[in-house]
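Hey,
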Amino acid sequence: MTNETLARIGENLKDLNDFRLVMWKRKCADLPLDDGVRSLLQGYTNLTRFAFQLKPGGLTDIGLRYIGQYGQKLKSMIFGGLGETDTALITFSTGCPSLKKLEIKDCSFTGHGLAIAASQLASLRGCLVHYGKIKFLGS
């Protein structure tokens, strides 16, 4: 998977409302996929479900911000191995007014950052966090 591949998918399959990419073990020479995610989301104006699970470094804080910026219609989001800081998670959360379901796996966000982000997602109805790498204050 490359940034260019994601851009081409966004350009040519504009009617999709569900996109899922899982790449835990595959080698990808074009990391991070920040620019590809931006292009993909700019092409998918009706995207409501988005799953993006990569090995660490696959999507930086910039890519996570792009999801918040261009994912205005997202209702369901699954993160895996994305982002680097709480700041990006919080920025993401301010850009997804329709998000109802959020699942986070193997990300390096703190419990504090997650709590702030969840409080900003007014339409959020469910949040599942796999605690593998979540760090809560005091731990």
